[in-house]
Amino acid sequence: MKGLLLEMKQIFKPNISNGDLYRDDQEGSSRTTMSGNGDTMIQTSGFHRFLHAKYLNPAQAVPLYILAQILGSIMAALMGEFIYGIKSDVLTTRPGQGCQAAFLAELIADFIVVFVIAAVTQQARSVGPLSGLVIGMSIALTVLITGPISGGSLNAARSLGPAIVSRNFDRIWIYLTAPVIGALLGALMYRVLRLRPIS
User: Fold this and answer.
1) Nearest-CA neighbor of 182 among 112, 134, 118?
2) H helices present in the chain, as ranges
3) Residues 13 and 109 grouped into a single domain
4) Rounded to a whole number, what is the largest CA-CA distance in the chain?
5) For the segment 96-151, what is each residue's pLDDT rounded down to a tens digit?
6) How many domains in the chain?
7) Which regions in the chain score pLDDT beneath 70?
8) 142: burial class by Cβ within 10 Å (0-12, 13-18, 19+)?
């Protein structure tokens, strides 16, 4: 653990002259400056460094990421029940207007969120420091719109954790399939539009 902290300390050094954080790229001479944009918190945590290809490949990182999300969701449901007395059945996600409407709402919401994230992060210069705001607003709006229809889950792990704790798997298939399909379609649509020549 001490070695990990020392390496993270070497990666990020405060630049006192302008208050920004930077990291020196060890493979080359380039320097990445991070200021007030939305991904600063994620980048300064240092964990992106350890998800780089030379540390972990996607085949190892993605299953661990999914497992961590599911375990986090289960722990949150358990903490809500034991510490605050919130019954985990209350936290389960349920369709408000039927299964078909809930499935479509979750699919479309995840499509929009992933498309916006891909567009903003791949073309950061067009949005600039507002990328975090744009992503946050897209998530907030999709949750507000889909809340009455599907419960506004947008994440399979968020729905799976309370379902496991409460042992209530009624209609969980909606929240395990629709977000994944919507996210894949959003990423695919962005890629198709990105590869299309501008006329």
Assistant:
1) 112
2) 2-11, 40-44, 47-50, 58-84, 88-91, 99-122, 124-127, 131-150, 156-166, 172-195
3) no
4) 59
5) 889 999 999 999 999 999 999 988 888 766 777 788 898 999 999 999 999 999 98
6) 2
7) 1-59, 124-125, 196-199
8) buried
